[in-house]
Amino acid sequence: GIQVEQSPPDLILQEGANSTLRCNFSDSVNNLQWFHQNPWGQLINLFYIPSGTKQNGRLSATTVATERYSLLYISSSQTTDSGVYFCAGMDSGGSNYKLTFGKGTLLTVNP
Amino acid sequence: DTEVTQTPKHLVMGMTNKKSLKCEQHMGHRAMYWYKQKAKKPPELMFVYSYEKLSINESVPSRFSPECPNSSLLNLHLHALQPEDSALYLCASSQGATSNYGYTFGSGTRLTVV
Fold it and tell me: Does residue A72 contact residue A85 with C-beta atoms inside 8 Å?
């Protein structure tokens, strides 16, 4: 099966700090997406980013498909950014429906 | 409307009960999904419906029975569950049959089996 690996597994920040989360994925992964799961369980799609760079406010993401990694940047972090960040992708050689998640990065932003 | 709505938000059921989880979206998405998430783990795919037909069943036990009455609704019928089935059940949808689009998730149903 496909591999989606995230680092770091845990990250603690002081409010206002910047951070970079990394996702490495195997050859056959496409349709890379980043999600934020808040402490109540809601999964929010942050970016659909199979390649290139996108920005949304304080968040931005870059995927370099040829080198099989994606980065999520969080600038000027806020306590509401706390939660688990997942990257997920699909197997280009198999069903296009199955989204496989990495294990996530647990982010804690302290006031 | 850009939401996926799941009900109920919380459910406690006994091992002999029958209950149903409901999911609704009005974004015109043609693919809908059920995921199961245990504590401190990533979501895991259970079922995929594409154009109201079951296209993927990830070897889920028969005590979980999905149903897609129409393109906007997705149900998950539960019967004779075990305590280890306690988890967060997430519904999601995506736009196209080939799913080259981002997923939208509901807020989930937190299920406890006693």
Answer: yes
